[in-house]
Design goal:
Elements lengths: L2 H12 L1 E2 L13 E6 L4 H4 L3 H12 L5 E6 L6 E3 L2 E3 L20 E5 L7 H10 L15 E5 L15 E3 L4 H13 L9 H5 L4 E2 L4 E5 L5 E6 L27 E2 L4 E3 L2 E2 L16 E2 L2 H14 L3 E4 L10 H17 L5 E4 L9 H10 L2 E3 L12 E7 L3 H6 L6 H10 L7 E8 L6 H18 L5 E8 L19 H16 L1 H7 E4 L3 H12 L3 H11 L9 H10 L4 H5 L17 H12 L6
Parallel strand pairs: 2-3, 2-6, 6-7, 7-8, 13-16, 16-17, 17-18, 19-20, 20-21, 21-22
Antiparallel strand pairs: 1-12, 4-5, 8-9, 10-11, 14-15
Helix pairs in contact: 7-8, 8-9, 12-13, 13-14
């Protein structure tokens, strides 16, 4: 047995489809779909974009396809920034020994715009030509991309055949039906037909005029049968598969719930408020938990950054606590991991419920503070009340303070605070006020073991939000801002208290460099990423001068990607649906704030 065969066999043996085995019958002429997931096995099970579509394809009788998964297996060979298979064996899926490159459709999911280079690595690993122009219809797979990292898919326009914008349960299923009826061949490509499916963007069917240094002057479809715009899809709950709200497969260590989609608030810099707010029926979640308890899964993840907006959260937490109590009687500890919450929406009942859970933590924290029993994460974003108003951040400091005071009698002893630095409108004193706010939060928690973690993020405006045109924070400034805030906090509380009770975290400049150009770039940026990849650059340790020089070789300017974008046409013009009036209102409010330019 080969190394990959052994590893995939072990993965199959560890997996349990939570709602029961997948059907093995396949319709005649079923298309083979392979989802490439750029993570190891445990984390891949939490990637609900590809996992929900995997479950949808394999459980829906009317979809003429079956789905498989290929991961970043533990036994792949790392060679610089590349991955190869051991002993040169074909890159395979978990479910089949057939090579990935023999699939009809390959789906790639990118969760962060700074990770777009991972698509090149996975295509190379699979032996699939990187660029769409080098792939032959009917010979090579159709490559479909999706997820939040492709909010600006133009960067990979020359590498992806199709991009699913938004929620893809309907559009991807229709794509599969279309290809089943009209297979792609060298003589008969179906891209124009695919482009007319709502929510699917076919980059090769659009023509762009590029601006010097970066950006676009104009965009137009190449044929009158190609839509001029593509509408991002956000679906009604009835059109979403249950696996959109729950992790469909467990390896026995964790199961996950997504009780809400979207957010009730619409902060001008945040993508959470872009989709409409929807609450998942409690019956779906409790039925899932029934099965989780039957299987004895000991870690439950509530993966929703707006969980406090779920109206039936008390009922859900009570169900989890009942399972936890029954497990405890058998000597088994059940842990609940909860995503970020809005402090202004936390009630005493909510704090009571999570306190009674006993063992809970935060989904993404890798921190292990001394004696930390419970952690909540809060995103004040700004310490300045004026900036909160300008950016339509509705979390008022008074409400946060009340919540922190309520935490005193709970198991919560650690508060993680997320702040944005370098945003337009920010003054130096606004940044330093972050230190004052951290000190105030710990004082309000009022317990000797209280700890505060300050996580700083540079301002990175996202396509699709009212702030999408605003000037981006230069990643180079993040270290300086972080050092200034840490120094201020150290002066306020003294070195001993600072060392014992506070952390100020920032960094990841290399990722931010890539994120900056990928959030703002046109399709020439994809060629820059390809050059960096081919030259062996480590994207986690990318020197600024190397990036600047590589951009220049393609006629692009790094500083131009950071500027305020007042261009009439943005690189993502085809699917840009932000209200111009909202954009202009935000820009006017910033211009009226003195002392920051």
């Amino acid at each position: 047995m080969s190394v990959l065969a052994a590893e995939t066999a072990a993965i199959r043996a560890s997996e349990i489809p939570i709602v029961g085995p997948y059907p093995t019958d396949r319709p005649d002429g079923a298309l083979r779909v392979v989802f490439l997931i750029p993570y190891g096995h445990a984390y891949s099970l939490m990637c609900n974009g590809p996992m929900s579509l995997y479950d949808l394809v394999n459980r829906t009788a009317g979809i003429p396809a079956y789905a498989e998964r290929a991961l970043q297996y533990d036994n792949l060979v790392r060679d610089g920034n590349r991955l190869t298979t051991p002993d040169g064996e074909p890159y395979r899926t978990i479910e089949s020994a057939a090579p990935v490159h023999q699939a009809d459709i390959v789906g790639v999911s990118v969760t962060n715009s700074g990770d777009l280079h991972s698509v090149l690595r996975l295509l190379d690993l699979a032996g699939i030509p990187r660029r769409s122009a080098d792939r032959v219809p009917g010979i090579h797979p159709l490559v479909v991309g999706g997820n939040a990292g492709l909010a600006n898919p133009e960067v990979l326009a020359d590498y992806l055949d199709v991009v699913a914008m938004g929620e893809a349960e309907v559009s991807f299923a229709e794509l599969l039906r279309t290809l089943h009826v009209n297979p792609r061949t060298p003589e008969n490509d179906t891209l124009v037909q695919i482009s007319r499916i709502p929510g699917l963007y076919v980059p090769a069917l659009y023509e762009y005029d590029f601006a010097p240094g970066g950006g676009v002057l104009a965009v137009r479809p190449k044929a009158p049968t190609v839509p001029a715009t593509v509408n991002t899809q956000f679906l009604e709950l009835r059109d979403l598969h249950d696996a959109h709200f729950t992790y469909p497969i467990t390896d026995g260590t964790a199961a996950g719930l997504i009780p809400v989609l979207g957010c009730k608030h619409s902060c001008h810099f945040c993508t959470l408020g872009v989709p409409p707010f929807r609450e998942v029926p409690i019956e779906i979640l409790t039925a899932y938990l029934d099965r989780v308890e039957e299987l004895g899964v000991e870690r439950i993840i509530i993966s929703a950054p707006t969980f406090t907006q779920y109206r039936r959260r008390e009922e859900l937490l009570n169900r989890i606590r009942a399972y936890s109590d029954r497990a405890a009687e058998r000597g088994v500890k059940v842990t609940t991991i909860i995503g970020s919450v809005r402090a202004d929406e936390m009630t005493s009942d909510y704090l009571r419920d999570i306190n009674e859970l006993g063992n809970f933590g935060h989904l993404f924290t890798e921190l292990n503070l001394t004696q930390a029993r419970g952690i909540i994460t809060i995103a004040p974003e700004f310490a300045s009340a004026e900036l909160l108003d300008i950016y339509y951040k509705t979390m008022r400091p008074e409400r946060v303070n009340k919540t922190i005071e309520q935490c005193r009698d709970t198991v919560i002893n650690t508060v993680m605070l997320y702040f944005i630095v370098g945003a337009p409108g920010e003054r130096p004193e606004d940044r330093l006020a972050i230190a004052d706010r951290a000190k105030e939060i710990r004082e309000l928690l009022d317990r000797p073991d209280a700890a505060v973690i300050v996580k700083l993020h540079g301002f990175m405006p996202k396509p699709g939000t009212p702030g999408q045109r605003l000037r981006m924070s230069d990643p180079e400034a993040l270290d300086r801002y972080g050092d200034e805030i840490a120094a201020r906090l150290r002066d306020l509380v003294g070195q001993p208290d600072f060392d014992q009770h506070y952390r100020v975290q920032f960094g990841e400049k290399s990722r931010l460099y890539l994120e900056a150009i990928c959030l703002r770039g046109d399709r020439r940026i994809g060629h820059v990423l390809e050059d960096l990849y081919d030259n062996g650059m480590d994207p986690t340790n990318l020197p600024r001068d190397v990036l600047v020089d590589t951009l220049a070789a393609h006629g692009l300017d790094f500083a131009r990607h950071l500027r305020h974008m007042d261009d009439p046409v943005l690189p993502w013009h085809v699917f840009n649906d932000v209200d111009p009036t909202t954009e202009q209102t935000l820009i006017k409010a910033l211009n009226n704030r003195p002392g920051w330019q």
